[in-house]
Each structure stands twice: as structure tokens, then as C-alpha cells.
Amino acid sequence: MLRLRKEGPMPRARKSAAAPAPAGLIKMRPYQEEAFWAEYGLQLWLWARQRGKSRTMAAKAMHWMGLNPGCLVTYASASLLLGTELAEKEAALFYSTLDEMRKQAESLGMLLRLHAADREAAIDDINVDDFKDLFTRQKLQTRLYHSPSIYSRTQVIAPNIATARGWSGFVLLDEIWFIEDFRGLWEAVEPIISSSPLFQVRMCTTIGRDDSHFAYEMAAPPEGTTFEVNPRGNWYRSQAGIRVHRVDVYDAEACGVKTYDMDSRKEITAAEAKAKAMDRDAYARNFELIMRAGGINALDRAALRHAMEAGASECFAIDREDLPADWMARAKVGDGPIALGYDVATTENKTSNPSALTVGEKVGHRMVARFTMRWKSADPDDCIELLKQVVTEMYHAGKKLRRLCVDGSNERFHAVNVKRALIPWIIVEIVVSSTKTTYKAEEMDMKTYLGNLFSNAVQDGEVLLAQHEWLRKDMLLVKKEKGRFVTETDTSGNHGDTFDSSKLALYGLRHGSGPVEATGVQVGRMEMKAPRAGIRNPYAPENLPAQEWRAA
Asked: Which of 140, 406, 458, 528 falls between 20 and 30 A from 197, CA-CA?
């Protein structure tokens, strides 16, 4: 409880204006102000990650408690850790509010004191850590006393359907896309909120991977809606009729929110961050707030079409078992570094999938998929002979063979046999999809890493492909769902095999190294001399007396 008391002869300062509203005591960005002061009773804040959602919700909770003596604010979070964070942010906001009130009191010749339990203390004697302790001590419950017997409170609880029927007053729902049974929770909360014109709800979230989640229905904008960059964010009414305040990474950037590179930690633009992101789909969800229904193609159709148009006269592809005698001439294999990707045939749902081979050549910063082949064979030895023919022809033609990357996820024994058969002519690397790797401090398996590597390169115009309809259809069989690459199997058993062989070829060009040779070279300009009698240093000048170089 706060008390104002007159304290002795205190110099009267100039007459003060009215104390500012609580929200005015903290620094807010334009889009935070827009959402904070909006009067819509039911709102959904669809904001990019790390753009101040929890801080704004904490400020709103304090605002509601200050305006409504005796009210209950319920904050439901899928993570109790986030709940603790809210209580601590409320404490920090309240502390800054009290500091401003202290200044106002001083200007009126009064002293503001804090009353807690059985003790009184001046505001100057209480630090922000003490406040955080007070705010979180009551099992994540914050109380704001308006008198000795009337107080408002914020309770932080898990989003439990069983307890939701007891919520009333004002409700904050954090990261609703990640609350498992949010439809059931909303069914329990909606009648309570509808019972009084004073009750209000603020929901916030980023976009999750699951498009079947009830939050998708709540947040989906009308078909064809476009959003202009706006530092105050964009309002729209969703298909479910809910007022949504949308703030993507470009809106936040327009009002000064910065982005930093994960490696150099230097400031970069949002566009540069997108270009460097390994998982473009995750960036689109978390920062650009792009909502897509259903599994999406791993390759952007327009980018794939561009790759094939650019490679129409440079690349050659066949869908058959025998290798043409003039394949290398038709593929226009040049003098750049070459890597091959080999996707081994497997069985999916009792259907045999083809094998696929891609010969990729590095030309400038691009990979030109000079030759792509898809075939079916029941004999693994035939596959090895075909690979040997391709590799040895390029080897004897003097091509720069860097490596052959073979998928050893399911057919490890065959992959080992391929390595043994081809090692006289080319380095063979066995790639296992489940192997963990780290990219910019984010751990992922090789399947996810290579899929992102190839799809990003196609989108950036760094891959040229042969222009064939069967190749286009095979590439589009690969989908991306919930951050992972999954592949449909068509009626002929095709399984996106050329996508896999191409990503392996690209990996072979961009990673690893060729054979290592060690050769002794001269360092510096002095030449080794034969040792002289009494002199251990072979580099000793000829005109120096031997005794000056003789060991002690």
C-alpha cells in the first residue's frame, strides 16, 4: 500500500502537472503504444518474436489493476518460466512508476512511502530486486493495494481447462499457438468474458508450425490481404472475426528495432537476416508472420522454374536405366570443380523407389547440375557399375573431381561398397540423414540441414537445373512440414530422389576438401649450410669467429 505523508519543512517546487498514466512511465515503441491503448475488448497481438509482447502485456496488467480496484487479472502461459518473467517485468514497471510518483510527491512537498506487511520504508530504501521478490513470493501472484482492504491482483497460472471456468475480469493469454488444447480452453473462457462489458481479453502469439491449431483459425487474415510496412503495426479483422494487431519484423525495423548477425554480432537489416537464415520457412513464420495452410513445397515453384529456364541449355537429364554414350558431351561438363550426389534406391510403403545421380559443377558461385539421372534397378552391382562408368569417364577426361556424396541412411552396406569400388578415382563421403550437425549455434540433423541448403540455393538463384517436366514433378514431391522435409510417393514410386541427389551434390561442392599433399618448402630467404667445426648454428655468418657461436 502507498501512503503520502507531509514531511517537515520541505521546499515547495513548481506546481506539477497531473501524474502521467502508468503506461506513459515506460518507453514504448509506436506499435506497443498502438496495441496498449486500443479499446477493443478482444484482441490478438500477432507479433514477430522478441518484439516486446511480454513487456507490453505486463504493462497492460498493471494498467488494469490500477484502474479497477478489486479486479482479477489472469495471465495464462504455456510456460511457467514465462509467467515468472511477467511477474518480474510487472515489478520493474511498478518500480519505475513509483519512482515517477516519488518525483511528483517531492514537487508537491510530500514524501511517498511504501507500506509492506508491518513495516514502512521510503521508496529510496527499496530496490528493484526487493520488488521482484515481493511480486513473485505469493506463488506468481501480484497484488496492488488500493486501501488496507481492497486490492487488485494478477495471478499467473498454466492454461488449464479445469481452472479456466473460474477466471473472471481481465485475461491475458500468452503464446496461444503453443497451448495444446486451446480450442477447449477458449470454449471455457469465452462465456465468462461475454458476461460483462468491463471484461477484456488480450491474446498474443507468434505463428506455430501446426496449421490445424485453433489459433490458425483465429488469426488467419482474409484471403488476398496484403500489409504495408507500418511502425504502428497493422490492424485487421481475421476470418474468425477477431481484431488482430500484426507486427512483423519489417514493421518493428521501421521504428528502430535492430537485428544482429548471429556470427559477427554486427547490426544487419531484416532482409539480410532472412538471406542468411538456414530455415527460410521458420524465418517466414517467426519474423515475417506468413501463414501457410498445409504442407508446403520445399522448393518455391517460381524459383524452381527460374532454375530450369536458366539451365535449359546447360544441363542434361534422363529418366532411364542405360547411360548414353555421349552423356558427358550433352551435359557440357566443364573444367570447374565437380561433385556428385547419389541417392540410393529404397522401398517406401512396399513400393521400390528409384536411384538418382546428380553431377554438379561449380561455375562462379553457382552449382550447375550438368547431369541428372533417375533409374530403377534391382541389382545393386549394376548401380555401382553405372557410377563407376560416370566417374572414370570424367577422371580420364581430366575433370576436377572433388567428391561423391552417397546417402547411407538406409542402405549403409551398399554405400560402403560404393566407397570401396570408387575410391581409386574419387573421394566418397557417406552421409547419414540422422547425423546431427550445428549451423549458427542451432542443432539439426543432416536431412534438415541439406534440405535447407539446397532449397535456399534454388531460391537465391544459385542452382541451374535441366528443364524437364518429370524432373520438376519429382522435385515438387518434397514438402516441408513443421520444419522438417517429408516426401510424398507418387503412383510410380518416385520419391523426390533427384531433390536428394542434387542436395548431396551441392553439399559436396560447398563442404569438405580434396586430397591433401604435404611438400617441404623453403621458409625465409636463408639457405641451409653444412655445419662447421665448433659452430652449431648452420645459419651463422661466414665472417664471425667460431668461438662466438660455440656452445657454453
From this structure: 140
